[in-house]
Amino acid sequence: MSRPPLVVVFVAVLLIALGELGGAVLSQLRPAVARWVAARVAANPAAHGLSGSAEYDDAVREQVVFTAEAGLSFFHTHAEGVGLVLFFAATLVASVVRGRAMRAVLHAMLTAGALFPLGYLLYATAAVGLGRDAGVTLAEAWVLTPLGTTFVLGLVGLVVALGRRPRPSPEA
Amino acid sequence: MTPPPATWRLPPRATLLVAVVLLVAAEVGGASMARFKVELARWARGEMLRHPGVHGLVGVRDVDERVLDEALFRFDAGLRLFHMHAEGMALVIIATTTVAATLAETAGLRRMLTLLLTVGGVGYPLGYLLWSVLIPAWGVERSKSLVEWTVWVPFGSATIVALLGLLALISIRMVRR
Questions:
Q1: What's the number of domains chain B is made of?
Q2: Which residue in B34, B69, B128, B153 has its CB near the most CB atoms, within 10 A?
Q3: Which residues in chain A are closer than 8 Å to B7, comparing Cβ atoms?
């Protein structure tokens, strides 16, 4: 099997490494993360719609902590998985796609699109800084949807390339 | 420095064998969880009842059932996490050791990266299986603490260190081209 360009391999391994680190942070620093989120929410009451009622504010704080942990958890699983998908899909592109330009386009789409798990980090941090709904909307609109769509289109391009009938060899 | 090869080189056969065995174990684990769910829960519950002190059982049905349900949930979660992590890490071993086999120029560096990636990748998911097995007799927190320091931290760290080494290696090859 042919090797994809080194920059593609770098991004694939980087995603896997970041996914591993995200998992480690999630398991080792969960209480510290929850404390940090609670402090950020308290420091920014308007963004989270805190009312001053202890019962209501506790529920809001718990929701934001849950959203931040969910973002980290999604980042961990998606970064590991997408890093592997990028590695194997880019190897297939390098091995079966004819035409240097088409290979370059598909590698670029897959590599850029594979960065979409970073949107889950934005999802976690923006939910804390901007409020849950505004943060989630920001991450979806600016990272998850555009990069995720690019990744899917890159995979569709690979499917089309794999489905095309191979050119007959000169000996045939 | 020689230019990086245009095709992938296979990692050592032993590494591939270990990764495939881990994949099989993950598949079997997932299938067993579904097929023997009731039997596994019955065994775990029986073991927990044989160690009431470990789980803080007090002999009051309402209180004890809640404690047992929580411990059984963790027991089941450990098995599920083993299934998922073993599948994922087996593929991570294959992909990353392929990169190491292709891009590491010296045999020593290649061997070290391959060893860390293989040992770390296999050991880490087994920690979840060990956690599940220990929960009934040791309790949720005590077994978690034991597995954390004997399995998850050392094997997880081995993988992370090797991945950082691999990233450094790819960066050097990119810069020196």
A1: 1
A2: B128
A3: 1-3
Instruction: Give a yes or no: residue B76 inside a domain.
Output: yes
Question: For all residues of chain B together, what is the average pLDDT?
Answer: 94
What is the Cα–Cα distance from B130 to B139, expressed in whole angstroms? Answer: 12
Instruction: Give CA A26 to chain center in angstroms.
Output: 16
Q: Is residue B6 part of a domain?
A: no
Q: Which domain holds residue B19?
A: 13-176
B5 domain-assigned: no
> Is the Cβ of B170 closer than 8 Å to some Cβ of chain A?
yes
Quote ipTM for the complex. Answer: 0.91
CA distances from B123 to A123, B55, B144 (A): 31, 27, 15
User: Cβ–Cβ of B99/A81 closer than 8 Å?
Assistant: no
Confidence class for position A172, pLDDT limits 50, 70, 90: very low
Q: What are phi and psi of B37, to 5 degrees?
A: -55, -50
pLDDT in tens, A3-23: 999 999 999 999 999 999 999
C-alpha to C-alpha distance for A43 and A46, rounded to whole angstroms: 9
CA-to-CA distance for B170 and B135, rounded, in angstroms?
42
Which tokens is A95 given? 């091995």
Q: Which of A7, A8, A9, A15 is the best substitution to test chain B (most B C-beta atoms within 10 A)?
A: A9
Neighbours of B27 (CB within 10 A): 14
